[in-house]
């Protein structure tokens, strides 16, 4: 196991079962749904203080030859940040399952072109946690270089909200 520039454990191909597969195996979300065969199917795993994700882009994720589309980058950060919030809320409340959380707001900064032919490393850490919401900061690195960063507010929804049962 190696340490990356953020001091987190590094593994190029995760054999771990990520939080999406553990808690939302039937989810069809384009970014994080394990049941969406055409989606990104991200696999976020726990690290101290948050989640990490290793993602290897496919040819169809390119904006132009050799570089990833900004919308794909935004989806990676959004879904990964959302799950970091859900897991933190679950842990803080002592629950056995994460609440269904949705994105209230998020923004990203594309710092440099993101290469399409290398594994991408995404980290999400909660910066402010309340009973039903969390502020999260996310970073996307390629080959140790910061390519994009973002922040978001993710909120747990109650029964009656259209997304309430989306993970179950």
Order of helices and strands: EEHEEEEHEEEE
Tell me the CATH topology.
Answer: Thiol Ester Dehydrase, Chain A
Q: Please give the CATH class.
A: Alpha Beta
Number of domains: 1
Name given to the CATH architecture? Roll
Low-confidence parts: 1-13
The residue fraction in helices comes out at 10-25%
Q: Calculate the terminal CA-CA distance, rounded to whole Å.
A: 33 Å
The backbone outline, from C-alpha atoms, is globular
> What order do the strands of the largest sheet run in, or round the barrel if closed?
3-4-8-9-10-7
Mean pLDDT: 91
How many separate helices? 2
Structural class: alpha+beta
What would you give as the CATH superfamily? Hotdog Thioesterase
Percentage beta strand: 35-45%
Fold topology:
Blueprint: E1 2-3, E2 9-10, H1 19-23, E3 45-47, E4 50-55, E5 62-64, E6 67-68, H2 70-93, E7 101-110, E8 120-130, E9 133-142, E10 145-156
Antiparallel strand pairs: 1-2, 3-4, 4-8, 5-6, 7-10, 8-9, 9-10
How would you describe this structure in keywords?
168 residues; alpha+beta; 2 helices; 6-stranded antiparallel beta sheet; two-stranded antiparallel ribbon; Thiol Ester Dehydrase, Chain A; disordered N terminus
């Amino acid at each position: 196991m190696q340490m990356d520039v953020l001091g987190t454990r590094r593994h190029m191909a995760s054999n771990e079962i990520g939080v999406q597969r553990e808690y939302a195996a039937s989810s069809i979300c384009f970014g994080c749904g394990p049941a969406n065969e055409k989606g990104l199917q991200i696999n976020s795993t726990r690290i101290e203080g948050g989640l990490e994700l290793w993602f290897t882009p496919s040819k169809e994720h390119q904006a132009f030859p050799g570089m990833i589309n900004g919308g794909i980058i935004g989806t990676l950060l959004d879904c990964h940040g959302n799950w970091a919030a859900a897991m933190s809320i679950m842990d803080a409340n002592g629950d056995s399952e994460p609440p269904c959380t949705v994105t209230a707001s998020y923004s990203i900064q594309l710092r440099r072109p993101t290469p399409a032919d290398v594994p991408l490393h995404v980290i999400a850490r909660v910066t402010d946690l309340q009973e039903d919401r969390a502020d999260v900061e996310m970073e996307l690195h390629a080959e140790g270089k910061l390519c994009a960063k973002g922040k978001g507010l993710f909120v747990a929804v109650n029964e009656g909200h259209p997304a309430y049962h989306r993970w179950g």
